[in-house]
Amino acid sequence: MSQRLDWRGSCRAIAIAATIVLCFVFTISAAGQDGSTGGNSASADSGVPLASADNTPVSSTSMFVPESSVVRSEDAGRRAHTNYVLRTINGVKPQPMARPGIGPLTTGTFPEIPASLTCVYKVGPTYTGCSPAYPYHTTFPNGGSNVIVLVDAFDNPNATSDIATFDSFWGLPAPPSFSVVYANGNGHCTTPPPNAGWALESSLDIEWAHAMAPQANIVLVEACSNSNVDLYYAELVAGSVAYSYGGGDISNSWGEGEYSGEITDDANFFTYWSNVAYFASAGDSGCGAAYPSSSPWVVSAGGTTVNRNTTSEAFVSESCWAGSGGGISTVEQWSPSSTGFRGNGMGPWSAYQYPQFGGYLSSAFRHTPDFAFDADPNSGVYVYSGYNGGWYIVGGTSVASPSLAGIVNLAGNKLGQAPQGGGFYTNEENNLLYDQLFGAKAYKANFYDIKTGSNGCTVGVKWDYCTGVGSPRGLLGK
Question: Which segments of 352-412 are extended strands (E)?
């Protein structure tokens, strides 16, 4: 089942005294005490850009940076860019392929398919070597819970046919339902205008979230534009959509440089808190933090390279992808507990990194990423975009965010930003990930510890600025 929905008049998030009136029949009363669940209004678009390492994505002759992924310092605090790059052989924009099928891209890397990556990460059926070679394996995971919501800018007119084409080629079942929601209730558009760069982004998002959790409902929420005003409004719409399914996982493959007003925008990622987890790409510019990846309320998605035997194409290892974002926020700082719950910055409500980086007395800042997935365009994934003419090999942390959201959804723990019955705000998914980091058995069993490669930051044992706690190994602890 697929449909396109108009959000005008059907969804509003309004701060009224201490109560947030949500979409449909959901109303949440604020307890008005530090860190307890309740409504918080979100700032729209403010802030002075700060110095940031979120520069133009790492480039080479093996990848092409589309216009939508170009990073501009003047956009920080105002508008977002996509976080994907295209695999190419000569540095120029690749032509669309009529169907997947290409040899090794560089020594030891190959384009990846749904079956090969669900095998590598042990979240689907496994087979010898987890090879992506032709004839393609068409195995897939069994499961998925509630809904995965993908937030993007502009309209993708081909979204419904894109996911159907992707599923048909790889032998995936159609999702229980697929819907496109226009986040137009703020009056900034009726139908978002189409945009080729963002259309490929949204196709990537819906296809690879679905590949990881085939039985989850898939909803694409389209903002009127890539301005922060429109994207943050779309984020609130996405939260309301997730609530209507009883909770779910929300992925954001876009980002921008950090800016002084971002801490007031953090509320967009926990206003809808019950059974709703948020994900964001760490960026494709190498070492350095970006927003909303640096928000303490999201799971920040870093990037890896999948390395294979050049003869058998069998999986060998993962290493840090040179383009993966990750670093120390210049804005999201630990707040003194005496100020009570502020809903922004680091603090007791986001203490998952405290054992490593300290708290108020050490003025600790948010460190990213939290978790990682394949993102190197040399080991990139196949994406079908009808609006862009066919199949592409795509990399970037835009691959990581929806894929990790899909894996977490498949795991079915249904964690949110506070206990399900209400209580104190906290990023439950990150709490789970970080609680295993120092375990003698759980960490080795549930994660790949990526120790090689570099994005310009230190990469080493356990947590690092490229892959966070590592990449997933199975569904336990996710």
Answer: 365-368, 371-374, 381-385, 390-395
